Amino acid sequence: MSVLVLGGAGYIGSHAVYQLIDQGEKVVIVDNLETGHRDALHPKAAFYEGDIRNGDFLNSIFEKESIDAVIHFAANSLVGESMENPLKYFDNNVYGTQVLLQAMIEHNVKKIVFSSTAATYGEPESVPILETMPTIPTSTYGETKLTMEKLMKWTEQAHGIKYVSLRYFNVAGARETAEIGEDHQPETHLVPIILQTALGQRSHITIFGDDYNTPDGTCIRDYVHVEDLISAHLLALKYLRNGGKSNVFNLGSNKGFSVKEMIDEAKLVTGRDIPAKIGARRAGDPSILIASSEKAKQVLGWNPTQTSVTKIIKDAWNWHSTHPKGYRKEV
Ligand code: UDP
Where does the NAD-dependent epimerase/dehydratase domain start and stop, copy by copy (predicted)? Predict the structure, then answer.
């Protein structure tokens, strides 16, 4: 049996494919290559280029391949873009998941692990954030991910598809060997932008606000290494295969770092200057997001091992410094 990885050519999906294959799993990838990269595909995985909103396409894959579980990363994930183009997010994220669930029902595939987000919580009442806290998204992106969770909840009741929803905090880092890494066009995430500045590809980084109610005034986030994040997906798959009930888990490090602290840490790791300027706040940014990941540790047996931001930045730097143009070919 194979695991179907939707979005397996993207940053997080490609790390999942590599770990699944390391663990001896057979993998089938579906990706429309809109934000994913052909060079991020694992050579041992079967690959089908196409869009999850295309039901005929998805059905043909479930017919050709022998699939027992799905891991779903195929979604748009930028808060800012989702505010400017909300219908794009409802179409790809929500409608895409609807088509997927329909195909799973038709082909009797009963297990799905799904990438959700801390953006489902909105501005938290307190930190660390527990899975039981209210979900009041402040962005279209968060709303679509929460809606995807609800699609799964109601579909489970009618059709018995079990799901694990993993609510990610701030994912960064790369596979230690730097075969694959993070490459978004355009890049909006903090760690890659810091490292592009260290490489001299940007004159400076703009810190989005230093007047937040935090010790140094900049936003605090909980950074989790992509490899630790993916190990939770493999455990979630095992949990479902062992008959685990549908569930939701936070994935973070339970520690917060400010934007300024991340820049300072990156200066130490890279040994480079990283000029920073203070800019305006970015719309929709909560001041502090820190996860409680105790539930994932207790129920899934998750044991993140790469929890220091030094290690996260070091592995991200290893990728960025060896692939300064990301997956684009050198000229
Ligand atoms: N950030 C920043 N400058 C940048 C990019 C990000 O100050 O060029 C801040 C952003 O406001 C947030 C944190 O870094 O407080 C992490 O942002 P990112 O976009 O990486 O992740 P998010 O928290 O939106 O998921």
Answer: 3-252
What is the residue with the minimal CA distance to atom 3 of ligand 1?
A: 207
For 162-200, what is each residue's pLDDT tens digit?
999 999 999 999 999 999 999 999 999 999 999 999 999
190 Cα–ligand 1 center, Å:
5
Structure tokens at 242: 């062992």
Q: Ligand 1 centre and the CA of 173: distance in Å?
A: 15
Fold of the 190-221+254-322 domain: UDP-galactose 4-epimerase; domain 1 (3.90.25)
**What contacts 209, CB < 8 A, 6 or more positions away?**
217, 218, 219, 278, 279, 280, 281, 282, 285
DSSP state at residue 119: G
pLDDT tens by residue, 83-124: 899 999 999 999 999 999 999 999 999 999 999 999 999 989
Nearest residue (by CA) to ligand 1, atom 11, is 208
Nearest atom, ligand 1, residue 220 CA: 15
Which ranges constitute the DSSP H helices of the chain?
11-22, 55-64, 79-84, 86-89, 96-106, 140-159, 190-198, 226-241, 259-270, 294-295, 309-322
Architecture of domain 2-172+224-251: 3-Layer(aba) Sandwich (3.40)
Residue list, ligand 1 pocket, CB within 6 Å: 79, 170, 188-190, 193, 205-208, 219, 221, 259, 282, 285
- Residues with active-site annotation: 141
Q: How many CA atoms lie within 13 A of 111 on its CB side?
A: 20
Map out the domains of the chain as residue ranges: 2-172+224-251, 190-221+254-322
